[in-house]
Write a structure and sequence with these properties.
Blueprint: H1 3-24, H2 27-35, H3 42-50, H4 56-68, H5 74-82, H6 87-99, H7 106-114, H8 119-127, E1 130-133, E2 137-140, E3 145-157, H9 168-184, H10 189-194, H11 197-204, E4 214-229, H12 230-292, H13 297-318, H14 326-335
Antiparallel strand pairs: 1-3, 2-3, 3-4
Helix pairs in contact: 4-6, 6-7, 6-8, 9-11
C-alpha cells in the first residue's frame, strides 16, 4: 500500500474521531460551566446529546441563574425543556422577579410558561403597569343623547391568577360594558359631560378584574364626545311606522268600503231588474183579468184614477206640472 495513501487515511479517521468526540463531548461548554462555578459532569452532557437536547440551551441559562444566586439544578431545567418550555425565558423571569422583590417559585414560572404566557413579560408588567386603551364606546343616556367615550385602563399582572386567568380582551369588554351601563343610567348626557370621572369611579368599583390575570389600578376617561340624538330618531321612526300603519289601515277600510259599495250597486241593479221584470208582468196580468172577467172596466178606470192622483201628488210635492191622465182629458172635454 502506498504510504501517502495510508497517511491520508489515518488523518481522515482522526478528524472524524475528533469531530465525533467533540460532537458528543462538548468540552468547551463543560469548561465554561466549570469556570462559572456550575459543576456538570461530562456524562450529563453526553446524556443530553443522546436525548437530542442541545446542551447550551440548558447550560447557559443555568450559568445565568447561578450567577444571579438562584438555586437550580440541571435536572429541573431539562425537565422543563423536555415538556416544551422556554428555559431561557423562565430564568430571565426569575431573575427579574428576584430583582423586583416579587416572590416567584421556579415551578410557578414553569407552569406560567407552559400555559402559553410570556412569563418574563408578566413579571415586567408587575413592575411596570401597562395601559390598555379601549376602542370608542357608544352609549345612550336616558334623555336619548348618544355619547362616545374612550378610556385608558392601567393594569398590572397578577402572578397568582396568571394561570387560568382571562386576558386583555376580557378587561376591555368588561370596561366597555361598565361604561355603557353607567352612561345609560344617567338621567341626562349633561351629567356625564360635567363629571366624566363618575364613570371611572363607578366602573372601578364593579370589580371588573375578578377572574382575570390582571389587577386594574385605574380607569381614566380619555375623551367623551356627543353623538346623535338617538331618542329623537327613534321617535321619528316610531311616528313614521305609526303613519304607515294608519295609512295601511285606511287603505284597507277604503278597499272594504269600495267592495261594499260595489256589492250594494250589484244588489240594487238586481232588485231593479226584478222590479222591471215584475212591472212587465202587470199588463199581462191585467189583460188576463179583463179577459177572464175578474176585473171590470170601472175597476180599471178607478185604478187609473188612483194612479193619476198619486202621480199628481208626487208632482206637486216635487214642484212639477200636474200630469195629464185619461180622466183629466175626459174632464176637460166635458167642460168644453
Amino acid at each position: 500500500m502506498d504510504p501517502n495513501y495510508l497517511i491520508i487515511l489515518v488523518v481522515i479517521v482522526f478528524v472524524v474521531l475528533v469531530s465525533v468526540f467533540f460532537r458528543f463531548f462538548p468540552i468547551g461548554l463543560w469548561i465554561s460551566a466549570l469556570a462559572s462555578g456550575v459543576h456538570i459532569s461530562i456524562g450529563t452532557l453526553v446524556g443530553m446529546r443522546v436525548r437530542r437536547i442541545q446542551p447550551h440551551k440548558l447550560v447557559l441559562p443555568l450559568i445565568k441563574a447561578n450567577k444571579a444566586g438562584l438555586d437550580l439544578t440541571i435536572t429541573k431545567l431539562e425537565t422543563h425543556y423536555l415538556a416544551g418550555g422556554n428555559v431561557d425565558r423562565v430564568i430571565n423571569a426569575l431573575i427579574a422577579a428576584q430583582r423586583a422583590n416579587i416572590i416567584m417559585a421556579f415551578e410557578k414560572a414553569c407552569a406560567i410558561d407552559l400555559a402559553g404566557r410570556d412569563v418574563f413579560q408578566a413579571v415586567q408588567m408587575s413592575v411596570t403597569p401597562k395601559v390598555i386603551e379601549t376602542p370608542t364606546i357608544s352609549a345612550v343616556a336616558k334623555d336619548g343623547i348618544e355619547l362616545c367615550a374612550k378610556a385608558r385602563v392601567t393594569v398590572r399582572t397578577n402572578i397568582e391568577r396568571l394561570v387560568g386567568g382571562a386576558g386583555e380582551e376580557t378587561i376591555t369588554a368588561r370596561v366597555g360594558e361598565g361604561i355603557v351601563t353607567t352612561i345609560g343610567s344617567s338621567e341626562t348626557h349633561k351629567e356625564v359631560l360635567e363629571n366624566p370621572d363618575s364613570i371611572s369611579r363607578t366602573v372601578l368599583n364593579k370589580g371588573l378584574d375578578a377572574g382575570t390575570a390582571y389587577e386594574i389600578l385605574s380607569i381614566d376617561i380619555a375623551d367623551v364626545d356627543v353623538g346623535r340624538n338617538i331618542g329623537a330618531q327613534l321617535q321619528m321612526d316610531q311616528a313614521e311606522a305609526d303613519r304607515r300603519i294608519a295609512q295601511a289601515k285606511a287603505e284597507e277600510r277604503r278597499a272594504m268600503a269600495v267592495a261594499h259599495e260595489q256589492e250594494m250597486k250589484a244588489s240594487i241593479q238586481e232588485m231593479r231588474a226584478k222590479v222591471v221584470e215584475a212591472e212587465a208582468e202587470v199588463p199581462r196580468a191585467m189583460a188576463s183579468a179583463l179577459r177572464d172577467g175578474k176585473l171590470g172596466v170601472m175597476d180599471y178606470y178607478q185604478m187609473q184614477n188612483v194612479i193619476a192622483d198619486t202621480a199628481m201628488r208626487e208632482g206637486i210635492a216635487k214642484g212639477g206640472v200636474q200630469p195629464v191622465t185619461p180622466d183629466t182629458q175626459q174632464g176637460n172635454a166635458k167642460k168644453k
